[in-house]
Amino acid sequence: MLTFEDGSTIVYKFKTIWEPGPRGFSVGKGTGEFTNGTGRYEGIKGDLTYSSKYYTSYSKEKGTLGDSVTEVTATYTLPQK
User: What pLDDT, in 10s, does the model give residues 26-72?
Assistant: First the structure.
């Protein structure tokens, strides 16, 4: 879920396929769709594609979850007000 300063929200769901990447860090690609919106995003419809690469790994001992960069492309429509 994304929440914006004005309180509007966008909810989406997605599916990712993860594979081993360079230096043993995971890379993923996926697709998703918008499922709900509130405020200025009420009635949002559309989809998204993305790719993600991890640059550090998860470490239970260090208490880290890993760092990644994700690029997203979204196409959506909103109802006329």
Answer: 899 999 999 999 999 999 999 999 999 988 777 778 777 778 899 99
C-alpha distances out from residue 22 to 25, 54, 55, 65, Å: 6, 9, 9, 18
Q: What is the pLDDT, as a whole number, of residue 72?
A: 95
Three-state SS for 14-75 is: EEEEEEECHHHCEEEEEEEEEEEEEHHHCCCEEEEEEEEEECCCCECCCCECCCEEEEEEEE
